[in-house]
Amino acid sequence: MTAKKNYLISFVILLIICGSIKNSFATHISQPVLIDPKTHFTVGDTVVLSGWVEYNAQPAPDVLLNFKLIRSDGSLVANQSYPSNQKGHFEFKFDTKNELPGSYQFTVTSHCLEIHRYACTYKNQTLSIQLSNP
Predict the structure, then answer these.
(1) The total number of structural domains that make up the chain
(2) What's the order of all strands across the beta sheet hosting 64-71?
(3) What mean pLDDT do residues 94-106 have?
(4) Residue 5 placed within a domain
(5) What is the CATH number of the domain that holds 61?
(6) Residue 16 falls within a domain, yes or no?
(7) Residue 65 near residue 111 (C-beta atoms within 8 A)
(8) Which backbone phi and psi does 50 adopt, to 5 degrees?
(9) Neighbours of 96 (CB within 10 A)
(10) Each residue of 10-67: pLDDT tens digit?
(11) Which residues on neighbouring strands pair with residue 17, listed in sequence order?
């Protein structure tokens, strides 16, 4: 009788462990969505790119985002991180008055909520920007 009891308890514990492992491999998928991004600017303009963080087809507040702006030669112009606001929206601003004309690559990456960081997929959106002389 004791052996049957031990087997039953072991089987229940095994089921609990297997159920926990399945959930531990779930990923948190949030992604940045740019809203009507402008791609052409003039030297001296302020680049303003806005959007929202989508999670389960809803805006997600307090999701850490990383914003990178890179010149065509690969040099880094801007590297900033901050969370989406309470409505799940974000805005990136960059002053171009000291920049050279040319192509730039803007990338915004979702780093997920702090509590989901262990299972984050780090989705991003990339946009090519042209900066021209006035």
Answers:
(1) 1
(2) 40-42, 124-132, 102-110, 64-71, 76-83
(3) 96
(4) no
(5) 2.60.40.2550
(6) no
(7) yes
(8) -125, 160
(9) 19
(10) 554 555 554 544 444 446 688 999 999 999 999 999 999 999 999 989 999 999 999 9
(11) none
The bridge status of strand 40-42 relative to strand 64-71 is unpaired
- HSE at residue 75, side-chain half, CA atoms within 13 A, is 5
Q: 106-132: per-residue pLDDT in tens? A: 999 998 666 766 777 889 999 999 999
**Confidence class for position 7, pLDDT limits 50, 70, 90:** low
List strand residue ranges (DSSP E) for 9-110, in order: 31-34, 40-42, 46-55, 58-59, 64-71, 76-83, 89-95, 102-110
Asked, for residue 74, whether it belongs to a domain, the answer is yes
pLDDT on residue 16: 55
d(CA 53, CA 56): 10
**Domain contains 29:** yes
Q: Which domain holds residue 113?
A: 25-132
**Residue 55 to residues 16, 52, 94, 123, Cα–Cα distance (Å):** 28, 10, 26, 11
